[in-house]
Write the structure tokens for this entry.
Amino acid sequence: MDFTLITALIGIVATLSGIILGWSAKAKEAKNEVRKDAELDTALRTDMEYLKRGVDDIRIEQRSQGQRMDAMGERLTRVEESSKQAHKRTCRNSVGKIKAS
């Protein structure tokens, strides 16, 4: 065997091994990139679910607060009516006492 033939074979083997190693590195990098994208997507989905639950909790609390305000409004109306009736009775009693004197 000739020195140039050995050099050529070593060059071909080196080129082929470089291609194979490069190809496998690229495949591994693509796999890692897909994994990272999946992790990021999962994190975003988890955060979105957390935000949705928070918004749902706020809506429930707002609805509850509205119901409490409605109940307080009804109670206030009843108290105002009762106060008005008591005021009328007090006025009638005062007028009756003044006429009796």
Notes: The chain is about 95% helix and 0% strand.
